[in-house]
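Quick question: what would this complex look like in 3D?
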Amino acid sequence: MNVKSKISLSIVSVALAAAIGFAAPAQAAGDQKKPPRQSWSFAGAFGHYDRAQIQRGFQVYREVCQACHSLKRVAFRNLHEKGGPEFTEGQVKALAEQYEIPDINDSGEAVKRKGKPSDKFPLIYANDEAAKAAQGSIPPDLSVIAKARSYERGFPLFLLDAVPGFSYQEHGADYIVALLTGYTKADDPNWNEYFPGHKIGMAKPLNNDQVEYTDGSPKTVEQYAKDVAAFLMWAAEPKLEERKKTGFNAMVFLFIFAGLMFFTKKKVWADQPH
Amino acid sequence: MSGTSNFQSNSKVVNWIEHRLPILSFLDSQLHQYPTPRNLNYFWNFGSLAGIVLVIMIVSGITLAMHYAANTEIAFTSVERIMRDVNAGWLIRYIHMNGASMFFIVVYIHIFRGLYFGSYKAPREILWMIGIFILLAMMATAFMGYVLPWGQMSFWGATVITNLFSAIPLVGESITTWLWGGFSVDNPTLNRFFSLHYLLPFMIAGVVVLHVWALHVVGQNNPAGVEVKDVKRDTVPFTPYATIKDGSAMIFFLIFFAWFIFFVPNYLGHADNYIDANPLVTPAHIVPEWYFLPFYAILRAIPSKLGGVIAMFGSIAILAFLPWLDTSKVRSASFRPVYKVLFWAFVLVCIGLGYLGAKPAEGGYVTASRLLTFFYFAFFAILPFLGWFEKTKPVPASIADAVLAKNGGSAAAMAGAAAHSKS
Ligand code: HEM
């Protein structure tokens, strides 16, 4: 490209940048506060869940969130499976038995029976209407919530999120931590710094010392929030470890294959000017 | 077809088949001896990459369809079951989900390659127009596929886009009702979208056959933009040269693709589509998939609904007229200093429109979208005149000359290589 065309191209680029740039202030007004970035064991190409952490997170879910939120896409047996909290089979069986599962008996009557590991977590409310009547607004099912929430990273950060070494997929988990720790107005339990519009139907659910941890982890809102967010990430993406491991193997294979192909191509073309 | 076949065999079986269906000599002429310009760069691999992605999409799609249920009550749940309970279901779904984006990345590069090197010019007009038709069919397929998981963006995207048809005067409302199979996007809509989403890729595959047929009649364009004059000096046989190069490009591309599948599988998607569709709750921003964003920005830039729809479809349709809008005798932008600037400006305009399409339609964003929409169409308005006043650089006499100029080699070396070329 010659100098003249380079100059004209620069002028065009500047004009475009200006056109988009003066649009930017419009965004600033409605801007949501960005959740702080947490460090997660499951982030990055070699990420894996921290068993102890998601076990604690499950405890928080069970003792606090479960009062209102269902987890209907997760089965008890999943808690035992590889790549998850990996509770023992016995633990999972005992846990399932504490739940009442609606079923139909042999004479066709609607009954409740003890849960089995193959059952899914039962609904908390029969339907959205019942949930709304009880809570004022509908508490969403938490099975995929960690993938169903995100926030805008803005230009140019959003581009970086896809780049190896900088990849960032944990927007949802970060948002949940921010949400649970974002009740910053002592006089208003329904004011949340990170919830869009700030007025949230869920009153501050977590307080210090609320959940008895047995492994000595701090009993603080921050710790609870992080643990339950990690657990919810697992609930939303139970195959994350398998995915990243398979991905690593696939990459090793592809890189070797690519090298062989590239040199074969060079060899084949060596006698041909091109 | 231009492929010269001197196919001969001593095998009785081969000759027996050849006399009844000359398919072996056909394959030999098209995939073995078919002459390809020797100066092609890696941008010429995106056509075969598109073909590979199409195959990947069809295979992963058929596998998904074995587990998917096209019913509004259970569609979302059936997708979550694929992610959780089906063996390697997460892999199949992430391949298909990201494969759609890969398809558009590859085809957009393929198209911009054509724009830069003037591949749409005579005698490749029909080849080019078939390509635009493929693009439209891909868009329809991708749009309907995105509706299938029945998340919030599925539902609201479908609602916004199908509603566009109501802008057609007089019959618009009836057409929209007909498309929906009811009075809103609902179960009948989901069902027919699934049916069509299964059908269209096979139609695309059929049209790709026409596309490649047309290609093999006129032959490939090349970075120098001059036609093949002497098959021996200017070209190399498809196999092994193009085969091994396409093969390498495929593996490089699969590395890129695998990164998305295994490490950032939800990067190109939208979080709202992990929320069950709910006709009573409208998402704060309804945003289509990234590959539609430039067109979405054009749609919203025009103040009237009908005008927006016309501008949006027009922005794609106008590409089909490019062979006649561009009046320059010179194909390749390498020898067109003004067109080269115009081309890169057009690329930036498309990226800018894509950015604006993701932003809410308010304030400065609307003004910027209008400006860039104007630039988008201005590109096509300037082209016809450019051919008259642009001072082009001298074009190489032949592909062989272009290669020689680049390598500084001797003509003898070229002739020698041609004589020894493996075939
Ligand atoms: C499913 C999508 C598509 C497939 C599978 C496909 C496949 C191919 C293949 C295999 C080639 C030969 C290799 C090459 O020269 O790159 C080719 C060439 C070509 N394609 Fe496509 N294509 C697709 C979409 C399109 C679209 C959307 C357009 C454009 C508008 C297009 C325009 C062209 C042109 C102009 C050529 C000839 C290029 C040249 O020789 O310079 N194609 N295509």
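Answer marked as accepted. The first helix of chain A runs from residue 3 to 21.
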